[in-house]
Amino acid sequence: MLGGDDEILGAVREADPAVVSIDAPLFLPLGRPSIETRGPPHFRASDRILRHLGIRFFPITLGPMRSLTARGMRLRERLTALGWHTIEGYPGASQDLLNIPRKGAGVAALRAGLVRCGLSGGIESLSTTHDELDAASAAYLGNRFLAGDFVAIGDPREGWMILAPKQAVLDRLRARSPVGSRA
Questions:
Q1: Distance CA 70, CA 21 (A)
Q2: pLDDT tens digits, one per residue of 105-155
């Protein structure tokens, strides 16, 4: 478990990954001058797509999400300046797409779902926390990104959110599109 930004940056330096998948919003909605600004816009294009897919999320302007968004944006900026490629991942979305219970259903159910989908590397331990399991899910997103097995959603002016696996995203889009339309 890592605490501060400097600890995270140190771990990234040590691991030297091809991509850093961050489990936090990394961009603001178009037209929003800062995360501290009150009022609209509250949703990014990626948020509206999540809503269309039936994937639950907290808007970036909701209470504690403001500080998570500010931290994510700060980490993205620092990591990018140091030469690492970052992506915005949303582990809860991939867990939904893979029919894995989220942490709200209990750590044991989340762990079992991730293991069933092939994740390993220490997450099998009963002492693994939900934060560590979400980190494993974010690493899964980075792996799928590098393999090309992902869908980038959103508006490039706001930054992309990465969803994976690609087929699960496409299946969900088709299932939720109005009859006669194409996903």
A1: 16
A2: 889 999 999 999 888 888 888 788 888 898 899 999 999 999 999 999 999
